[in-house]
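dumping this here so i dont lose it
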């Protein structure tokens, strides 16, 4: 999946395994960051903060720049509402979108079926539909507060298997659970892991974290990185350090 471009004697790498989160509030800030990151980042995640403020304009902008897009709105509602909501989002032309696995099997299978039907009608490949397992910010205390009896890692695997059975393409999970999910769900299942922190970065509000290299070794197909890139003094340098970390032989 890694793609390499040689520019002016130096090496710039674009690697679809890194998804940079655009957790910003305005189009201008997002554009500035995307410009700064240039061709070091090809995949962006647009979440609630930016999409609720800016709407489809951000998707149009990223598509115009030939970037890939993970639209992270984490739908969680009754089956019909989620399925039809996803159909509306498909019209934007995103590459990945998501629902909460805790919405249940019926919701997820209806959503997956509806997305495939609509993609057929539109004559496109369906966007990848993935499900949140257990949020990476949750620690043991948060978990106990929900009254859940299964350990977090077992619950994450259970939700991943449920998502797979419902016909989804993959899950969002913590790097801590990626290895078990990979073993349970097989090599073609997408495992997107946020909660990724390069060595030396602060955890912020994340709990179940790992370095980019460790997350990929654990079986993640893609990693999501937000603050360690967009809050860095030099975001491009931060992105390139992560690229170097995950492509050691090439640097
Ligand atoms: O769905 C997500 O992307 C997501 C799921 C999850 O369990 N944990 C999680 O952090 N995320 C998102 O991943 C990004 C992580 O951002 P940073 O903690 O700044 O790297 C944020 O945009 C979160 O909304």
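and the seq i came up w/
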């Amino acid at each position: 999946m890694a793609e390499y471009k040689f520019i002016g004697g130096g090496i710039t790498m674009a690697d679809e395994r890194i998804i940079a989160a655009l957790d910003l509030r305005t189009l201008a800030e997002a554009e500035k960051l995307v410009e700064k990151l240039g061709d070091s980042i090809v995949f962006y995640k647009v979440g609630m903060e930016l999409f609720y403020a800016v709407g489809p304009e951000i998707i149009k902008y990223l598509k115009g720049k030939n970037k890939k897009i993970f639209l992270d709105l984490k739908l969680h509602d009754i089956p019909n509402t989620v399925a039809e909501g996803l159909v509306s989002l498909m019209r934007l032309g995103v590459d990945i979108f998501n629902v909460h696995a805790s919405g249940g099997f019926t919701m997820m299978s209806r959503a997956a079926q509806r997305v495939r039907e609509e993609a057929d009608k539109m004559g496109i490949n369906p966007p990848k539909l993935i499900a949140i397992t257990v949020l990476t910010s949750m620690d043991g205390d948060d978990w106990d507060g929900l009254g859940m009896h299964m350990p977090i890692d077992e619950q994450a695997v259970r939700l991943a298997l449920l998502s797979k059975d419902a016909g989804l393409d993959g899950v969002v999970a913590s790097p801590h659970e990626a290895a078990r999910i990979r073993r349970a769900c097989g090599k073609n299942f997408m495992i997107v892991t946020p909660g990724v922190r390069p060595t030396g970065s602060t955890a912020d509000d994340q709990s179940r974290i790992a370095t980019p290299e460790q997350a990929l070794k654990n079986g993640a197909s893609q990693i999501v990185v937000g603050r360690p890139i967009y809050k860095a003094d030099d975001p491009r340098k931060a992105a390139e350090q992560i690229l170097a970390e995950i492509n050691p032989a090439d640097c």
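Confidence is low (pLDDT under 50) at residues 1-12.
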